[in-house]
Amino acid sequence: MARVVAHLGRPETPQETADRKAEFSRRYRSSKTFRNLIAALLVIIAVVVVVIAAVPRGEPAPRPAPDVPALAAELEAERGRPVLSPSLGEGWRVNQATVEGVGGTEAWTMVYVRSGETGFLRVAQGFDADEAWVGQVLDGTRSTETTEIDGITWNIYRPANPSGTGNIDYALATPAGPDYVLVYGDAAPETAALAAASVTDQVEQLREVP
């Protein structure tokens, strides 16, 4: 028996029944799509919250400074000769200490920076090196003057083009037995002299190596 529709006062026609069911299906699908959209948004928000919560806060823990004396002692035992262990005093810290190669020459190189300031100073011991190695490091810069620090004569280098030498604008170098010692960077000449003075004993010991 056909369904009587109250507002029509008569049974629905087949077309009216089909239209009513179609409209119900449309509304149901629309409602379901909206619910799915809300659910998807809630899932995305939850994922974002989890990701944000998982991100560590604050600055990463500073990397411990290399133990220069300990590393130098290991190299001394390996190389069978004194190895530099400079001291620049308060305010300076070492952030790199390693053996690196420049122009086929291995060099024990330490990089010092001043806390809270820009600028750097390197102290390097070129193993079995000569003045040619210094020229390679300093992009061909030649020494035109010398200075005496604690009884040791050091050649002074002033690169004319610091941008071509990694921002190096001042350097000191001296032969030390089989090796060559180089102090270089963009720190003040007084600071370079301080670093050179701190390795006086080791330079003298190297000069006694046969």
TrEMBL record:
Region described as Disordered: 1-25
Family matches, as InterPro entries: DUF4245
Record bears the keyword Membrane: yes
Residue spans crossing the bilayer: 36-55
Record key words, sorted: Membrane, Transmembrane, Transmembrane helix
Protein name: DUF4245 domain-containing protein
